[in-house]
Design brief:
Helices cover 65% and strands 0% of the residues. With 68 residues, it is mostly helical.
Length: 68
């Protein structure tokens, strides 16, 4: 069985090694090129609604609501 100071020394060394590995990983990752964000595809152009038919429909709705 290892003495208490050997165990704590090993724990400290392993913790230091893990910390150095993590910092090196972050350093390498920060040097990698970042791809540009994907551009959103444009929605297909919709044909404009027939304004006269739309106004006529709104007139019918207004007449129905007013009780005519």
């Amino acid at each position: 069985m290892l003495s208490w100071w050997v165990r704590w020394t090993l724990i400290g060394v392993m913790g230091l090694a893990a910390s150095m590995y993590a910092m090196d990983t972050v350093r390498v990752a920060s040097t990698l090129p970042v791809p540009a964000p994907a551009q959103a595809k444009e929605a297909p152009a919709k044909k404009p609604a027939n304004a006269i038919a739309k106004a006529s429909q709104m007139d019918k709705i207004a007449d129905a609501l007013s009780g005519n």
